[in-house]
Amino acid sequence: MASEGQIPEWASTPCIMGIDEAGRGPVLGPMVYGCLYCPLSYKKTLSTLEFADSKTLKEEKREELFGSLKSDETIGWAVDVIDPRELSAKMLQKNKINLNEISHESAMGLVKRVLDVGYLLTEVYVDTVGDPDKYRIKLSERFPSIQFVVAKKADSLYPVVSGASIVAKVTRDRALQNWNFDETAENMHRNFGSGYPGDPSTKDWLDHHKHLVFGFPSLVRFSWGTCKFYFKDGVEVLWEADEADEDQSSGKTGKRQLKLSNLGFTGGKRKTEDIESSGKGRCKFFQSRKLEQLSRF
How far apart are CA 135 and CA 228, in angstroms? Predict the structure, then answer.
């Protein structure tokens, strides 16, 4: 496996990047942001590689295309895998961070990381989250040297975004297929369907795996409104918590009672290699030449 410092000669020439996500809507599993980048001079060639919005392609075709782009030395790619527990924690914390903000930070994190590695990004195409103009302005203020194009359905308009869509979708699918559960309940199974709230298999799985005290396994985004239905008969739990965050400025500390609601299971700390091999945790993988960095899934 090559290090991030081993970049190709074309990295110093003007480059373009596409960014897209997979798994924004599901109640199960991670949300994955993916990007694809290449020399600006390779832009026309991308349109001949059969990249398309990953949602319009069958799994076999996505895998085939992903294999092709991995072996193409004129294409680089990267992903940011955001654990469902991180999504829920940010969306439920006192100073809530909504899904749009999480998405924006993930996309900007990918741009920054590729720039930091040494690629000369001059154009970046992004599938929008929220208002396209506001998002473009936000990106341009963060990276003024880059020209951004932010559009709805960008994954069907720009081949570089279509490629990013394939990277993100294949990564998420593999992460789900190989998910390593922290929980060890004997009655757990993997027949959870697509993970979308409307999927009957997903609904059955959520109902089967709920715990009236401890909530759901860590695969579940317990901040999703879908989860509330399953705990209408749940046990109300109260515990004492420090109020240090509220009283820190005055030097006071105190105790208060907090409700335990929609709490996801959390296991003990796991080794980094276990997290990466299961697709869990916030992981970034980079591809600049002919690497096999997603074989771990």
Answer: 31
